[in-house]
Write a sequence for this structure.
């Protein structure tokens, strides 16, 4: 078995299984915790629960005016990273073929040059995020092992993918194997660290939205 | 032995009790919040304490670390390797959770994950108190509430004396212990001792509008230092006293005076604390006055002075009533100037969440006031109104500290001072305010 066979086969399959079970386990562990019973009477003008949750979910996509100046760089950098990553993961032809093999659905791919540009921007924004985390006094204090490992687990697949596509330094097979292994590592780590925020954001924003909107606040 | 010695008090720090309390609150939303934090640090930009100190430890997300640590340490498989919560952790975070968080909720408005940090800090305080920690003056205020009926020692007897004096001095009917009433009014002992004219103003307006109201010596104190100090038993007791008083007089409505956290404690947490729905509506005085205005029972002379309004966090952002104060000021305050920012993203006064009662926190509180000074000065307003006596006290103390010449006032008192008293009652069987013989009934 070559390294590529191992990466494509047992490594990726195991990683996908850990990712799927891990995410489900983590969500189930949360959702089966006790839920507090709310006995206060909502304000008469309060929106329906789902409306309050949805409003909060949407509102937190962008900082409010008083905070815009202070958070503009971090916010824009975060958008460049998240959108760039989404473009690379879901817009690249090879990724779409892989996802079709898993889920049976596909969609048109984006041009290769566009994907390369997105990957470079993603790496640049990840680099900027790391520099900021290492130099900003607040971020330095509150950063944990999880933050740095999650950063690395996200950085490596994008970097290795970019290198593999451009056939740099090593043989393509070896680069592809390393890329797939880095994706496997990402998938394995995903459920156990802060990468889970991709799922948790639906809970946190919505629950806060419900909490405040029933009081009549716009948060 | 469960813990180590608390250097400040000489008592024992019971780490296990803190952990037990943390874990007793591992409800879904709390754990989602703790696990959802991406450590982006944005919350520091919204926190008034971090804003004025520049100390990274004042970052709201950092204040949650002990709770996150305690939960991680019991969660398999993390429990195999995660470090345990220590007495040193608790000692270090005590100041952060009590002195440098006003539970104002502003950090929630900036958090990209929408995490409600104030809710978690409230729970963390309970754990710290169980461990034997917490500022002595804040805890004493809670104990006074339990033992004397009020954090400032306003016993039922003292309440009666103060009311008799106020009724006599200001020639206003202040009803105490009427057997039946539609509305039960509560008081803040801060007002009773420091700003008693606030109670006079409320009494005048309620009489003017013809409201059938009373105070009750069975349950009069609206402030809830049990709620602020993390003493749930005291918080529950304070709510239970008001509920019992309201039920005894058959009140359909309980009015919270100008006090922010008292409103939050009864309106939004009261039913949860006593485990059953409240048998009455709870209205902050600004909400009640807005209701009177909508019904045409509040006729006011224009208020011409340039004025601005400070939103008490627990009434506006966390209470949902920011619109009511503005509705009251509309067409009344002819030169109303809004601060920037205001409403649901206002800057806190720096003394909410019990911080006003913590003596050692005063220096930082005064620094926070500079934010407010700057805001007011930019509006050019000569007076800043508020509808929270705790905010008023905090602002007042800091105003003196900085020798600031800006004016401070109470929304209710300004309204009472501008009632149109043309002899025609605004509501049913209402005498014009101040026109009757002094009486405490």
């Amino acid at each position: 078995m070559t390294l590529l066979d191992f990466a494509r086969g047992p490594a990726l399959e195991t990683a996908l299984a850990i990712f799927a079970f891990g995410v489900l386990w983590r969500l189930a562990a949360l959702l089966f915790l006790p839920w507090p019973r709310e006995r206060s009477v909502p304000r008469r003008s309060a929106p329906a629960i789902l409306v309050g949750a949805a409003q909060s979910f949407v509102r937190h996509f962008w900082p409010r005016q008083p905070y815009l100046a202070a958070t503009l760089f971090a916010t824009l950098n975060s958008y460049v990273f998240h959108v760039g990553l989404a473009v690379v993961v879901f817009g690249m032809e090879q990724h779409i073929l892989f996802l079709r093999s898993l889920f049976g659905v596909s969609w048109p791919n984006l041009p290769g040059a566009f994907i390369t540009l997105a990957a470079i921007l993603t790496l640049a924004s990840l680099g900027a995020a790391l520099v900021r985390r290492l130099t900003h006094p607040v971020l330095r204090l509150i950063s944990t092992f999880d933050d740095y490992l999650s950063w690395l687990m996200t950085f490596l697949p994008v970097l290795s993918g970019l290198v593999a596509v451009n056939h740099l330094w090593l043989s393509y097979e070896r680069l592809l194997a390393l890329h797939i292994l880095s994706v496997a590592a990402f998938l394995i780590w995903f459920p156990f660290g802060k990468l889970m925020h991709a799922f948790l954001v639906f809970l946190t924003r919505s629950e806060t939205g419900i909490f405040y909107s029933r009081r009549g606040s716009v948060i | 032995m469960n813990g180590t010695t608390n250097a400040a008090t000489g008592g024992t720090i019971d780490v296990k009790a803190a952990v037990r309390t943390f874990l007793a609150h591992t409800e879904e939303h709390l754990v989602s919040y703790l696990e959802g934090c991406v450590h982006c640090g944005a919350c520091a930009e919204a926190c008034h304490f971090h804003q004025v100190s520049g100390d990274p430890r004042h970052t709201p997300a950092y204040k949650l670390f002990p709770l996150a640590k305690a939960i991680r340490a019991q969660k398999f498989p993390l429990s195999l390797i995660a470090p345990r919560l220590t007495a040193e952790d608790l000692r270090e975070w005590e100041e952060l959770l009590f002195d440098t968080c006003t539970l104002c909720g502003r950090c929630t408005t900036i958090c990209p994950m929408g995490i409600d940090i104030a809710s978690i800090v409230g729970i963390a305080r309970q754990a710290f108190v169980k461990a034997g920690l917490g500022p002595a003056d804040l805890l004493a205020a809670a104990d006074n509430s339990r033992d004397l009926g009020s954090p400032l020692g306003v016993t039922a007897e003292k309440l009666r004396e103060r009311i008799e004096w106020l009724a006599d001095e200001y020639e206003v009917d202040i009803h105490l212990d009427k057997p039946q009433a539609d509305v039960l009014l509560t008081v803040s002992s801060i007002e009773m001792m420091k700003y008693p004219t606030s109670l006079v103003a409320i009494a005048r307006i309620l009489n003017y509008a013809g409201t059938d109201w009373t105070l009750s010596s069975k349950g009069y104190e609206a402030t809830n230092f049990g709620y602020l100090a993390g003493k749930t038993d005291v918080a529950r007791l304070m709510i239970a006293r008001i509920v019992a008083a309201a039920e005894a007089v058959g009140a359909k409505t309980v009015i919270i005076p100008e006090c922010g956290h008292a409103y939050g404690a009864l309106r939004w947490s009261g039913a949860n604390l006593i485990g059953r729905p409240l048998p009455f509506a709870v209205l902050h005085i600004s909400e009640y006055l807005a209701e009177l205005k909508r019904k045409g029972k509040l006729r006011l002379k224009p208020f011409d002075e340039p004025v601005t309004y400070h939103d008490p966090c627990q009434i506006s952002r966390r209470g949902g009533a920011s619109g009511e104060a503005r509705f009251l000021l509309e067409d009344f305050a002819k030169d109303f100037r809004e601060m920037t920012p205001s409403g649901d993203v206002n800057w806190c006064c720096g003394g909410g969440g019990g911080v006003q009662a913590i003596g050692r926190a005063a220096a930082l509180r005064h620094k926070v006031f500079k934010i407010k000074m700057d805001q007011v000065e930019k509006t050019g307003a000569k007076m800043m109104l508020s509808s929270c006596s705790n905010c008023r006290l905090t602002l007042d103390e800091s105003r003196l500290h900085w020798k600031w010449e800006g004016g401070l006032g109470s929304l209710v008192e300004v309204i009472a001072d501008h009632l149109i008293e043309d002899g025609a009652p605004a509501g049913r069987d209402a005498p014009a305010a101040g026109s009757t013989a002094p009486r405490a009934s």
The two ends of chain A are 55 Å apart (CA to CA). Chain A touches chain B through 55 residues (CB under 8 Å). Chain A has one domain: 3-19+44-213. The mean pLDDT of chain A is 94.
